[in-house]
From TrEMBL:
Protein name: Hybrid cluster protein-associated redox disulfide domain-containing protein
UniProt superkingdom: Bacteria
SUPFAM superfamilies, per the entry: SP0561-like
Pfam families according to UniProt: DUF1858 (PF08984)
Record-annotated DUF1858 domain positions: 41-93
Organism phylogeny: Bacteria, Bacillati, Bacillota, Clostridia, Lachnospirales
Length: 105
C-alpha cells in the first residue's frame, strides 16, 4: 500500500522537499516599480484580491472596472479583467499597489 501511495503522491521525503520549495517561492518578495513590496500581482484572481484587499474594489471601479463583483470576474485574474476592459494591466497593478501601500491595506 505504501508503494502505491508513493507512486501517486511521492515519498514523504519528496513531498517534504516540494513543500519546502513552495514555501520558498511563496516567500519571495514581489516588488513594484517604487521598490516597495507588492501586495497585488497581475496573476491574482479578482475574487481573492477583493477578499484580501477590500479597498481595491473602489480603486478598480474608479478605473472603469464596474463589474468586479460579477460571478465571472471572481474566476479571472486581474490581468484578464484588465484586458477585457481594455485597460493596461501592468499600469493598474503598479497603481493599485501604490494605492494600497499608501492606505496601509
Amino acid at each position: 500500500m505504501s508503494k502505491l501511495k508513493d507512486l501517486f503522491f511521492g515519498s514523504d521525503e519528496e513531498r517534504s522537499n516540494n513543500e519546502s520549495e513552495e514555501i520558498k517561492l511563496a516567500n519571495e518578495e514581489v516588488k513594484n516599480e517604487s521598490g516597495a513590496q507588492a501586495l497585488v500581482t497581475a496573476d491574482m484572481l479578482v475574487g481573492d484580491l477583493l477578499v484580501k484587499h477590500p479597498l481595491a474594489s473602489q480603486f478598480l471601479m474608479e478605473c472603469g472596472m464596474g463589474c468586479i463583483y460579477c460571478p465571472a470576474s471572481q474566476m479571472e485574474t486581474l490581468a484578464e479583467a484588465c484586458a477585457v476592459h481594455g485597460i493596461d494591466g501592468e499600469e493598474i497593478v503598479d497603481a493599485l499597489n501604490d494605492y494600497l501601500i499608501e492606505h496601509n491595506a
